[in-house]
Amino acid sequence: QVHVVESGGGLVQAGGSLRLSCVASGSFFNSMGWYRQAPGKQRELVADITSSGRTNYADSVKGRFTISRDNAKKTVYLQMNSLKPEDTDVYYCNARTVGVGGLRDYWGQGTQVTVSS
Length: 117
Prior knowledge:
The chain has strands at about 5, 10-15, 20-25, 30-35, 45-50, 55, 65-70, 75-80, 90-100, 100-105, 110-115.
């Protein structure tokens, strides 16, 4: 059974930084990433990274956020700098496998990030 656990959210002033961490138990994950969701809105991709290190970022966070991954520890990190109030959301970690049975996503419980102006 796969467990995905996030940590590192909190309250920060605009312009500040936070670092999110996520560890996933279980098998190999083709990609890991971070999504965020505001109440009443769809969950959106923030950044993801493949097992080979290829990264992908939402335009709104490029240049401010950095995603990294430790494959041995099955851990993914999101360093968030120059935070803005509009970055306030619940952030969810995603671990994805791609196999014979198709694509399968595993999600953490979410961690709140609040940026005050």
